Amino acid sequence: MRAVQVARLDGPDAVEIAEVPEPVRAEGQVLVEVKAAGVNFPDLLLTKGMYQYKPELPFVLGGEFAGVVREAPAGSEFAPGDRVAGTSTTGAFAEVVALPETFVFPLPDNLDFAAGACLPMNYLTMTFALITRGQLRKDETVLVHGAAGGIGTATIQLAAALGARVISVVSTPEKAEFVKSIGSHEAVLADGFKDAAKELTGGQGVDMVIDPVGGDRFTDSLRSLAPLGRLLIIGFTAGDIPTVKVNRLLLNNVDVRGVGWGAYALPRAGYMRQEWDRLVPFLTSGVVDPPISGRFPLERAGEAVARLGDRTVLGKVVIEP
């Protein structure tokens, strides 16, 4: 089969299309014909050897997908022909993938494969973040950094569906228009976001900040919080990992909370499926509809991954084998 392979850690321009053996389904695994695969920031890091998980070279890139079941274990809830989505650290940028049944989820009929391929990483991360870690309540206000990207757009749609007011932080006026078109109530530019957020909340501040960016925005994010506010750390796409002076937490009665979706879900049998089942009502009602700004064949996978590095992606891009 054809697959997108990383043979050397020289960035997305160095990925190659290779002919590799089709995976053989092992005990407890589901074999899936991939129809679409989502592109995520960890894919970019993996091509440079900068991700915390460092697979042995060469490896097949890609961490989430949607497709059709080809084979399933005896007694499985899945059968050949079923439409599914799934997640795996690597292996999804290929024509066929095999993975444990616990990492595979039934795809609602109202979603196409491209939309399904955008769900497992970003949207499951954000249901866990907003509900479990953030304890978001109706009518609270959420400030979202990196709002035009995959995590940001997932946050906008889910937070709005949960009854929150959403203020998006973006880098350009064009991105501001985009995030408002998918459900953000307001949008502010990154330069001066703290003062803009304070003005929009009548000086009170926001109840929650979602930060997948890190870097030099961190202190102003803390200053943006209302009393009892929560800052949720999702990742560090800016590259720099910030530090916090804990006196700020004490003086303002605010929290900084880490969101490690995989670290929490992987040791807990059945938890990924529980989170998926919590997401499904948002999918079937149509309030979650992942925005896709680009579709690429396997041969252009390096280009698709590189777009995450130059910050040009609106929503998600997908690979379609």
Count of helical segments? 11
Terminal-residue CA separation: 10 Å
User: CATH top level of the largest domain?
Assistant: Alpha Beta
Largest sheet: 7 strands, mixed
| Strand-pairing-aware structural class | alpha/beta
Q: How many beta strands in the DSSP annotation? A: 16
What share of residues are in beta strands? 25-35%
**CATH architectural category of the largest domain:** Alpha-Beta Complex
Assembly classification: single chain
Global outline: globular
CATH topology of the largest domain: Quinone Oxidoreductase, Chain A, domain 1
| Helix fraction bin | 25-40%
Structure, described:
Helix 3 packs across helix 4 and helix 3 (122-133) packs across helix 10. The chain is of the alpha/beta class and 321 residues long. The termini are close together. It contains eleven helices and 16 strands. It is globular and about 60 Å long. The mean pLDDT is 95.
